[in-house]
Amino acid sequence: MLPDINLNSPNKGLLAGTMTDVPVDSGASARAAAPEGLTPAEEEELRSELAKVEEEIGTLRQVLAAKERHCGELKRKLGLTPLDGLKQNLSKSWHDVQVSNAYVKTSEKLGEWNDKVTQSDLYLSASSTLEDWNEKLTQSEAYKKTQETLSQAGQKTSAALSNVGSVISRKLGDMRNSATFKSFEDRVGTIKSRMVGSRENSTDGLHSPSGAGDKPPQDNAPF
User: Fold this and answer.
1) CB-CB contact of 204 with 213 (8 Å)
2) How many CB atoms are closer than 10 A to CB 85?
3) Is pTM, for the whole model, over 0.70?
4) SS (H, E, C) 72-117
5) What is the Cα–Cα distance from 84 to 92, expressed in whole angstroms?
6) pLDDT digits (tens, 9 = 90+) for 109-134
7) What is the DSSP letter of 9?
């Protein structure tokens, strides 16, 4: 037969013959051993303070959640979208970066490097060389000839365009004064007059269908 098993023992499930019940202190198991150098009174005081701090953290989390909900309601009433909030956060972050010590120090370093480069002998020599080349180029005969050629070409182009305009105007005037153009105008005037006369005759015919018009009737004298 199997030996009896004590179900209330922390060592339940083990054979009673191989292991005896061990009394368990609930207070000692729930609380870890006190650190070295602390008295029980100090440990108790620290644990009490820890409990208060954790309680305050929980309260602050609840307050923060309520504030965030209220902030969301205010933004919704004002019509602010999440994109507006993102822009505001990015702007604030960039401002924080600009005023940070790392950014300020980096800017100062870059300014110092720029001063050193611009004041270095190599930079000054290169700048002087470029200025000499520019002066020699602008004073060279090839540069002057090219500039004169471009100036003359521009003047000739302007003169040619002006001459073309004058020739066109003169040709139009000559054409209007020519006999052919005047004969054409006379023909157009004659055709126009005939068309107007025909229209007037048609209108008169509509008012007098018999064709007699407004003429007085003739007396038929007897033979």
Assistant:
1) yes
2) 13
3) no
4) HHHHHHHCCCHHHHHHHHHHHHHHHHHCCHHHHHHHHHHHHHHHHH
5) 12
6) 899 899 889 888 888 889 889 988 88
7) S
